[in-house]
Amino acid sequence: MNCMRCGFCLPACPTYRHLGRETHSPRGRIALVKAVADGQLAAESLTLPIDLCLGCRACEPVCPAGVAYGHILEETRAHLFERVVPNVRLLRWLGGLLWFYEKLGLRRLARATGILARLPGHLGEFEAALTDFAPPTERLPQGAVYPAVGEQRGRVAFLTGCVAEALLHRTNRRTVQLLCAAGFEVVLPKGQTCCGALHAHAGDAATARRLAKENIAAFEASGADWYVSNAGGCGAQLREYPHLLREEPDWHARAEKFAARVRDVAELLVAHGAPLPFRALDARVTYQDSCHLLNVQKVKAQPRALLRRVPGLELVEMAECDRCCGSAGSYSLRHFDTSMKLLDEKMAHLRRTGATIITTGNPGCLLQLRLGIQRAGLTGRVRAEHTVDLLAEVCEQLPRLP
């Protein structure tokens, strides 16, 4: 594990900062894992410390020894937990059901009657934070190809994702529109599936490997120059495929080539896209880093660079914008109180910026920020948007999609 016990990771760890216990820090968790592996502690000693970890991986960039804490975490969870992880078809069905729920007026009725407050496990709060749902007909079909606007700068294969495809598929449409406007031909590989991030984080390595192989095969067949995601967590998982398939030489070699083509949408637009024509936006905007986009994919400057290209937009940095918002996949459901402490602190920082818009590059973070805005009483004064959605809002040459 190569941990030197220097403690550089402690200030970077959200759970250590909030709970103040060594066992809830990266250094402490690694020590516990080693003690269990050496037979000095029972495996049950790991359950709570490991489950309380957000998996944000903020400890990795500050570690002088280069400890791959995220890999240790996932392998430990594989031995400890059995979790219910999302089914792609079920999520898409749920997204369609939520649209009908809103379209038929049931959502308005539920809010007016107070039924949402009676839902178990804080589900009412999460429902209230969701924005208007897009109809299922707006989903982009697998196998579709969308032409570049102007001179073609390359061919892009786009991963639609699970949460984004279920709840934020308008963001997916706008991602494709921006890419086309920037000179890319965009294909949605047929046979693509969930990236496997939530499975890997939950310790279900077998399913994560199966999904990785399906995606590698689907994207290889696309003939694309780059494989693009608009979700920080999904893109990070795609880049982790070589590690995931490290014990299967043939697949590992394919995974290495696959990962070399992976890009975040902001990363690709800045590096290879044609300049996009933006109309002026008179707004103060701040940006919240997605943990996996920042700590795993190392994408920080590019989203900010795109926002700065919008005339009139004032980009202000928020204190601790690189700290986890508390979403962390299903963490906000499993550890609601800890998640909300992190989120409420984030909202205090947001309030001090004076921003009227906060953007981020990950669907889970976006939904969490919208919940935070509601909790902080900022509804109507501040809105949270995916960076892609804000850029599409002010882009003057978005192509129409079928």
Helix proportion range = 40-55%
Q: Quick one: how many beta strands?
A: 9
Mean pLDDT figure: 86
Q: What name does the CATH topology of the largest domain carry?
A: Glutathione S-transferase Yfyf (Class Pi), Chain A, domain 2
How much of the residues is beta strand, in percent?
5-15%
Broad structural category: alpha/beta
Shape: globular
> How many alpha or pi helices?
22
The strand line-up of the biggest sheet is 1-3-2-4-5
What is the CATH level 1 assignment of the largest domain? Mainly Alpha
Kindly provide the radius of gyration, computed on alpha-carbon positions and rounded to a whole number of angstroms: 21 Å
Could you say how many structural domains there are in total?
Answer: 4
Sheet of most strands:
5 strands, mixed
CATH architecture of the largest domain: Up-down Bundle
What would your notes on this structure say?
The protein is an alpha/beta fold and 402 residues long. The chain has four domains: 14-80; 88-129, no CATH class; 138-270, Glutathione S-transferase Yfyf (Class Pi), Chain A, domain 2; 275-394, Rossmann fold (3-Layer(aba) Sandwich). The chain has helices at 14-19, 26-37, 47-51, 59-62, 69-80, 88-103, 106-113, 123-129, 163-167, 169-181, 197-201, 205-220, 232-239, 241-244, 249-260, 265-272, 291-295, 301-308, 331-334, 336-353, 363-375, 387-394; strands at residues 145-146, 154-158, 184-187, 226-229, 262-264, 283-288, 313-315, 357-360, 383-386. Strands 1-3-2-4-5 form a five-stranded mixed sheet. It has a four-stranded parallel sheet with strand order 7-6-8-9, with helices on both faces. Residues 95-107 have low confidence and may be disordered.
